[in-house]
């Protein structure tokens, strides 16, 4: 056991004592910092069943403001927080609608930031505890340590106290995820927040400027506006990059109508502090309480020793180049999740890919992950979900003459009594004409859009056509029937 530090972890000590014939090359090591949902799927469901020894190294560096996530990283926890804050805003709208349904209140309902965040953080803590219990129950080895590759089969683990240990493994899986980016302007890192910080902010952020039109940025803008705060979005350079442009414009218009302001054709030049508020200095000076950065995410691959062992990354994105089997340029090193270059990035996809990878490695299965038709959801005030190609991508791939687009607006029955947002909900189906009008893309903008689209994902994987879609009997009067 030369090179092993028995003080490093109780898990190691217990493991060595009970396994006198320990062979370090039977280990499968996962380097994690973000999507522990991958470990949940990969290790808990698969590796334990396949009787493999799995060690997880998981130590996420705090943000510039010192924000830390619990077990699960920002992948699992951020997804949960996004959904819960979205639900908080839905409840606020429902309270207003309830008066039209005959409900009355003695006092007007008001949102409480501190109470909301405390409840959300408690839920995140419960998830973290549940993950720990699951790992213990299946004999999973977990170290709160940062991993870095030293040699092809050697990983160095550094714990929270700076103690180092050298570990060996036959297989290494990299799932270090990504983190919010900062902007390179004066005050950008010192005075601005990211979504990680926002979700842990003990006080209300007040009047907020959201820099960036990413899905993450618009979700945060929607949360804050729904809680009654003044919000301005500064797109850099466009809203919802990579999504359907027509839908992106509808999302913008809906949020604009509901109180979110936009500053197009501007860019952040610097941020400075004056009397405990942040000031944006550009063409005009705007007094703000919070500047929130949502300009994209950067892969966590720069300091984990990939260059030492020859794992190749994209020079443009820093993300890892993999083949269709999630294998890197080094045979026994794999990458799953948002560290992959050129692949969609969702937590559900990471879970699915991790499960399939475990089965290929140790069960002899040969099924690879299908990275096409991956569903995604954006928790803007009017939820948007999609699966497959945008209209623009379909036209570019197959030619505009070979594409037919069907679309319509609809009004949820629940909204008719309060008279809310008539014809703001929308559905679009993108079809490939030469292939019997096979559905290439499905886009829904409306309540529970993610749940609606999820129901069509399996059908699209099986080659759903417009004719089959038309022949489907709907459930009246639910949202999916209308759409």
UniProtKB/TrEMBL annotation:
Keyword field contains Nucleotide-binding: no
Instruction: Identify which top EC class this enzyme belongs to.
Output: oxidoreductase
Which EC number(s) does the record attach to this protein?
A: 1.11.1.2, 1.8.1.9
Q: Which reaction does it catalyse?
A: [thioredoxin]-dithiol + NADP(+) = [thioredoxin]-disulfide + NADPH + H(+); H2O2 + NADPH + H(+) = NADP(+) + 2 H2O
Outline the extent of the FAD/NAD(P)-binding domain: 147-348
List the GO terms this entry assigns under cellular component, sorted alphabetically. Answer: cytosol; mitochondrion
A Pfam family assignment:
Pyr_redox_2
A GO molecular function held by the record: thioredoxin-disulfide reductase (NADPH) activity
**InterPro entries, A to Z:** FAD/NAD-bd_sf, FAD/NAD-binding_dom, FAD/NAD-linked_Rdtase_dimer_sf, GSHR/TRXR-like, Pyr_nucl-diS_OxRdtase_dimer, Thioredoxin/glutathione_Rdtase
Q: Where is the Pyridine nucleotide-disulphide oxidoreductase dimerisation domain?
A: 374-480
Cofactor(s) annotated in UniProt: FAD
For biological process, the GO terms are: cell redox homeostasis; cellular response to oxidative stress; glutathione metabolic process
Q: Which UniProt keywords apply?
A: Disulfide bond, FAD, Flavoprotein, NADP, Oxidoreductase, Redox-active center, Selenocysteine
Q: What does this protein do?
A: Reduces disulfideprotein thioredoxin (Trx) to its dithiol-containing form. Homodimeric flavoprotein involved in the regulation of cellular redox reactions, growth and differentiation. Contains a selenocysteine residue at the C-terminal active site that is essential for catalysis. Also has reductase activity on hydrogen peroxide (H2O2).
Q: Which family does it belong to?
A: Belongs to the class-I pyridine nucleotide-disulfide oxidoreductase family.
State the protein's name: Thioredoxin reductase 1, cytoplasmic
Q: Which organism is it from?
A: Myripristis murdjan
């Amino acid at each position: 056991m030369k090179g092993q530090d028995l003080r490093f972890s109780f898990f190691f000590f217990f493991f060595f004592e009970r396994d006198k014939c320990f062979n370090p090359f039977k280990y499968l090591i996962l380097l994690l910092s973000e999507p522990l949902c991958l470990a949940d799927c990969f290790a808990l469901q698969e590796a334990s069943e396949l009787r493999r020894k799995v060690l997880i190294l998981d130590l996420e560096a705090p943000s510039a403001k010192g924000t830390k996530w619990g077990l699960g990283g920002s992948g699992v926890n951020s997804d949960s927080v996004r959904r819960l804050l979205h639900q908080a805003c839905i409840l606020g709208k429902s309270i207003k609608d309830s008066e039209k349904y005959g409900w009355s209140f003695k006092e007007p309902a008001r949102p409480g930031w501190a109470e909301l965040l405390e409840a959300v953080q408690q839920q995140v803590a419960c998830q973290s505890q549940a993950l720990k219990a699951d790992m213990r129950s299946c004999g999973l080895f977990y170290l709160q340590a940062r991993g870095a590759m030293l040699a092809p089969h050697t990983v160095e683990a550094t714990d929270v106290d700076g103690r180092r240990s050298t570990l060996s493994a036959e297989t290494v899986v990299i799932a270090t995820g990504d983190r919010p980016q900062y902007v390179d302007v004066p005050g950008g890192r010192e005075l601005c927040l990211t979504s990680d910080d926002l979700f842990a902010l003990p006080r209300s952020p007040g009047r907020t400027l959201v820099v960036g039109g990413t899905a993450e940025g618009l979700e945060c803008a929607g949360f804050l506006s729904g809680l009654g705060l003044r919000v301005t979005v500064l797109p850099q350079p466009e809203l919802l990059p990579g999504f359907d442009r027509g839908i992106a414009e509808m999302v913008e218009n809906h949020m604009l109508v509901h109180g979110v302001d936009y500053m197009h054709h501007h860019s952040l030049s610097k941020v400075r502090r004056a009397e405990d508020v942040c000031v944006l200095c550009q063409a005009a000076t705007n007094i703000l309480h919070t500047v929130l950065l949502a300009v994209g995410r950067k892969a966590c691959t720069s300091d984990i020793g990939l260059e030492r062992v020859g794992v190749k990354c994209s020079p443009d994105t820093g993300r890892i180049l993999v083949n269709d089997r999630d294998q890197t340029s080094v045979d026994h090193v794999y990458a799953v999740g948002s560290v992959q270059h050129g692949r969609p990035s969702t937590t559900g996809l990471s879970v699915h890919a991790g499960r399939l990878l475990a089965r290929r490695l140790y069960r002899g299965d040969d099924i690879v992950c299908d990275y096409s038709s991956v569903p995604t959801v954006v928790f803007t005030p009017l939820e948007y979900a999609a699966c497959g190609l945008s209209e623009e991508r379909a036209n570019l791939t197959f030619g505009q003459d070979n594409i037919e687009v069907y679309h319509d607006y609809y009004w949820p029955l629940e909204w008719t009594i309060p008279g809310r947002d008539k014809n703001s909900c929308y559905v679009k189906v993108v079809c490939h004409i030469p292939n019997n009008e096979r559905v290439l893309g499905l886009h829904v903008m409306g309540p529970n859009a993610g749940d609606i689209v999820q129901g069509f994902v399996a059908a699209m994987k099986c080659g759903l056509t417009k004719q089959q879609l038309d022949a489907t009997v709907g459930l009246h009067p639910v949202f999916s029937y209308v759409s």
